[in-house]
Amino acid sequence: MNREQVSRTLQQHGAAMVLGVLVIVGSLAFDSFATPENAASVVVSSSFLAIIAIGMTFVIISGGIDLSVGSLFVLGGVLAAYGSRSGPLVALLLPLAVCGAVGLLQGLVIARTGMAPFIVTLAGLLGVRGLMLAISDEGATTYLVEDRAFAALGQGQLLGLSYPVYVTAALALAAMVLLQRTGFGQNVYAIGGNEQAAALMGVPVARTKVYVYVMSGLLAGLAGALNAARLSSGVTILGIGLELDAIAAVVIGGTLLTGGAGGITGSVAGVLLLGVIQSLINQVGSLTSAFQQVVSGAFLAFVVVAQRLLSKAQRLT
Amino acid sequence: MAELTHDRGGRPAGRAAVLKPQVYAWVQDYGVYAAVLALLLFNVLFTPHFLDAANFRTQLVQVTPIVIVSLGMALVIGTQGIDLSVGSVMALAAALTVLYLGYGWLPALVVAVIGGAVVGAAGGALVAYVGVQPIVATLALLVGVRGLANVLVPQLVEFRNPGLIALGSSSVAGIPVIVLIAAALTVIVLFVVRRTTFGRQVVAIGGNRSASELSGLPVKRVLLTVYVISGLLAALAGVLATARLQASDPTSLGQFIELSAITAVVVGGTPLTGGRIRVLSTVMGALLMQLLAATLIKHNLPQSWTQMVQAVIILAAVYATRKRGTR
Amino acid sequence: MRRTELTADSVAGPEPVLEARGVTKRFPGVLALDGVSLALRPGEVHALVGENGAGKSTLIKVFTGVYRPDGGELRYRGAPAAFATPMDAQHAGISTIYQEVNLVPMMSVARNLLLGREPRGRFGVIDAAAMYGEAERVLAGYGVETDVRRPLRTLGVGAQQMVALARAVSVDARVVIMDEPTSSLEPREVETLFGVIAKLRERGIAVMYVSHRLDELYRVCDRVTVLRDGRLAHTGPLAGLDRLRLIALMLGRDLDEVRSAGLTSFDRAGQPRANGQAPVVEARGLTRRHVLDGVDVSVRPGEVVGLGGLLGAGRTETAKAIVGALPLDGGQVLVAGAPLRGGSTAAAIRAGVSLLPEDRKAEGIIPTLSVRENIALAALPALGRAGVVSEARIDKVVEIFMRRLRIKAASPHQLVSELSGGNQQKVLLARWLAVRPKVLLLDEPTRGIDVGAKAEVQALIDELAREGLGVLLISSDLEELVEGADRILVLREGAVVGELSGDEVTEERIMATIAEQADG
Q1: Are strands C45-49 and C206-210 parallel, antiparallel or unpaired?
Q2: Considering the domain boundaries, does residue A34 fall inside one?
């Protein structure tokens, strides 16, 4: 392998490698780290962020960003709990419909007016949070999940792992195929890499963008719904600011914020990495969760600096 | 003129689609002032007790931290950057203030502001020297610095330092001191942007970085300085907010203020694409959002409405800017 | 010349595949195309020429569905046509290759080549192996042998251009429009391109070939259409139309005038202007891996030194290295005998060396600022005290240079992005003159600006040199180089391969010098 290939490999799989190292180090250092229970807890608690990060990966590869996912996650949870009174189907479909519609709206505004995704989804963040507050009496009402079948979706277990983990895995696989092996996926890479060229090459730029934001909205809503099922309630405070975690995970996973490059495996590795860091810090009994933020922030900074140096190395060859 | 027309003939992309550009230009330049004026008028007419001095004072005091933070944000956005770390810097400043309050309120303030400058320098170094995108560089700081503040001061700490309390609650000629400080900072930033070499260089770098480099501008140093200023102002806002609260609350102080600041800047008509800084309009943007929230609350509309209306206003403001941008 | 039988102009030719009839296109305040007619026939290679602003790109954009004409008619395959989008035109069979490679740099070569028509396997999912195989097969036909899995950006510009070409042609095209396709190709690649064009001709595909390089036009084109000021100036067979006549048609100048005055506005009446003086700037052994190989350049006060060579020979890189904008592996720059700190443009500017960059839009103007701010930019530290600028002094400097360079703007406060290319270039010149340099490095100072502004810029270079300024002139326009420079250094593959002065400064000698080395 030459230098360029080495740096490309590091960029694409660096997160997975660091994840591997951390898991090994953690297993050696703490007896209670490499237990099935702990592994399950990391995987389960990561799965909701992972679902959001999958959508975010598409958005970022397309050259955009979606700040509304944290609010959509909360809204999805509230709607799911609210809808669970009318049965499991409504509990699942109501958040998907509303969050998908928000994504559609954002996508249309971004694609049609050419306004910056950052701003449009920032407005989305505020607007959706407002909407969530409006239907929950300014956050005062917490709807409980009253449908057992729906609650089972979040709490039921198979082989020691709860259902959301399998949902996440299935979604990740589907997203990988979608991204690598379909025309739509190619279009996402193309508009993120060079939008003008993509348009001239026949990529339906506007439509692709709209799909990407719809997907991101749907996935955020789904994650919120599953989370509500797990907690048996539509919590109105959890998940605010989750968009930043999702972006961090995607960036750590090697997806370039400038668009045009990246992948699902990296993002999933990025999410797990954040989860493992948190778990390791919990292992050190004396450290508070605030330390986790310090480490995550430092790690994110480290990753972006490394990425920067790697892409410089690639350009030199 | 003949020459002018030639070139336009060559590449007129997007030109035909622009409708009444002067209307958009006007909205972009003065829209925020008009909106503030309209809201004021509405309130004078329809909101009871709106003209009370006490009400005015409350509104101004509440908006002060946002104004101070958005001054720095305007500079950063002028360079085509963004600073997400400001809220966490406020929290760090709150933590440092209470930690060093034993030495007196002034030394504590100085330490807090230095802390903010250091965080700004870290972000600026990542952006200017390493070439990391501003949004990720400052995102890392947002996460890490908030954590650091919480590690330093894990829970809310009340304090009784009379000097600091006075800073937060005393008034001169009926105007709260912190409002005066914000006004003074606005004037200083305005002067820096309009009349100094540095200010011109900031705008030029935002407009075209490689041209600025080839023109011999100290691009990296200017970028670094801009983030340092942003960190400094955020820290100052953090100290003032802490003084007003009479408690240090690193867990929640300044949360989401980066969004409010970005909103103020954007609503004020500064384009996110850089190359332009509108200081007074930014302050107006912050005032507009505050006034809007106050108006809705006074008329018994809940917070949820405020956020939804804010969303619409952000979109409208950027939409108007966009038209200008394509010219 | 060889193909007159194909190009019989009027009734005898085959039915045009693509035709513009009296097409008019208006933009606010501008008539970009004024009743232009052009017929493109199957199997012909049709040259489209004209100066900047003549309407070439507007016409291409009308053909490719970017613009819709305001008047006149567009006909495709014998029927009126209206393409709503570039995609419509592409689907109909009109492919375009743009001057700058319009592909996606970070995607792999194969994915770029086959985007939108990747081979599908089971479940309609892309069959990666088949995709790579097909990409390799297609590209081999264009002389590109590479790992098609690699990102496109790792290829050379020429190879990228070939991928773009292969992509454009492999779509079932009936018409291929090439906009300056050779501007970034190596000679070998140009030959490959011409081979492809010959094949297209055999297949009965119509090619519209836009280029400024007359040699190429005469080699590959059958007919030519000349546009000037948005109007049709000439259309007809290329064979029999002599070169000078073609230039005269493009410029709208009298043939005799062209012959007697040359094509530039330099007035090199005297002999070399800088005899005996010590060099004001001297670069020694500038070296950077793969880019520059021990380049020595010196410029004396009042001397215009030309840098000749093909694209990619290292001319721009030499200029950038001198001002410290290109990191070097070795070499040194001396200004008035004192070594310059490397890697600092600011230090170079302070020492009196300034660069007018090649890419005006990307590296020159600050589009969000006014004419005034753009002119004052580099001189700002000198136009104030203690970091506070003096508006009065700026106004004075700006006024002086706007008048001297005859910058046409509504006011100094007009946005620079609203000016024409020529006036933008003058603003940049003013920016540099305002810092009172000892040496100006001019990289393609007249590219992309209209004839009038070009003449003014050339006259200004003359005037500045006469006043004692040292000038390093880079130009792809051989005429400009020969008539403007006292001495010419010819670069090839990052090294100086010849120096011409006095009577040796002729186009033939420059070309011979480049060619000599090319053989060896």
Answers
A1: parallel
A2: no
Handedness of CA A139, A141, A144, A147 (dihedral sign): negative
Whether B10 is in a domain gets the answer no
Substitution target from A67, A74, A122, A256 for chain B, most B beta carbons within 10 A:
A122
CB A49 within 8 A of CB A274: yes
Asked if the C-beta of B272 comes within 8 angstroms of chain A's C-beta atoms, the answer is yes
Q: What is the pLDDT along chain C (520 residues), one digit of tens a residue?
A: 444 343 334 444 678 899 999 999 887 656 788 999 999 999 999 999 876 667 888 898 888 888 888 988 999 988 898 888 877 888 888 888 877 767 888 888 998 888 888 888 878 888 888 889 989 888 887 777 788 888 888 777 777 888 888 888 776 788 999 988 876 677 777 888 888 888 888 888 999 998 867 778 888 999 999 988 788 988 999 888 877 677 777 766 555 555 555 556 676 554 455 566 788 899 999 998 778 888 999 999 989 999 987 666 788 889 999 998 888 888 889 998 888 887 888 899 989 999 999 888 888 899 889 999 999 999 888 888 888 988 899 999 999 999 888 888 888 988 888 887 788 889 999 999 999 999 999 998 887 777 677 888 888 898 888 888 999 999 877 778 888 888 999 888 788 888 888 888 877 777 777 766 444 4
What domain count does chain B have?
Answer: 1
Domain membership of residue B182 (yes or no) is yes
Nearest Cα of chain A lies from the Cα of C464 at a distance, in angstroms, of 38
Residue C307 has, within 13 A of its CA and on its CB side, a CA count of 30
B112-142 per-position pLDDT tens digit:
999 999 999 999 999 999 888 898 899 889 9
Using alpha carbons, list the distances in angstroms from residue A208 to A63, A111, C416: 12, 9, 35
Instruction: Read off the tokens for C8.
Output: 């019989």
Domain membership flag for residue A16: no
pTM over 0.90: no
| Percent of chain B scoring above 70 in pLDDT | 90
The CATH number of the domain where B297 resides is what?
Answer: 1.10.3470
Q: Is there a domain that residue A67 lies in?
A: yes
A65: its two tokens: 């960003």
Residues of B in contact with C58 (CB under 8 A): 9-10, 12
Q: 3-state DSSP: chain B helix, strand, coil percent, rounded to 5?
A: 75, 5, 20
Chain B CB contacts of C31 below 8 Å? 9
Q: Chain C contacts of B4, Cβ < 8 Å? A: 408, 419-420, 423
Interface test with A, best of C87, C88, C98, C115 (most A CBs within 10 A): C115
d(CA B204, CA B276): 8
State how far the Cα of C20 lies from the Cα of C13, in Å rounded to an integer.
Answer: 16
Q: Hey, what domains does chain C have and what are their CATH numbers?
A: 4-93+172-257 (3.40.50.300), 279-352+437-520 (3.40.50.300), 355-436 (3.40.50.300)
Residue A1 lies in a domain: no
Shortest Cα distance, chain A CAs vs residue C157, angstroms: 14
Domain count, chain A: 1
SS3 A291: helix
Range of the domain at B290: 33-42+52-325
Q: Which domain holds residue A109?
A: 41-316
Statement: residue A214 has pLDDT above 80: yes
Q: Is C53 on the interface with B (CB under 8 A)?
A: yes
Question: Does B305 contact chain A (CB < 8 Å)?
Answer: yes
Residue B22 belongs to some domain of the structure? no
C472 touches C441 (CB < 8 A): yes
| Nearest by CB: C103 against A180, A197, A202 | A197
Whether residue B261 contacts residue B69, with contact meaning beta carbons closer than 8 Å, is answered with yes
Angle in degrees, 0-180, between the axes of helices B134-152 and A289-316, rounded to the nearest 10:
160
For A258-269, b/e burial (b = at least 16 CB within 10 A) is ebbbbbbbbbbb
The CATH number assigned to the domain holding A291 equals 1.10.3470
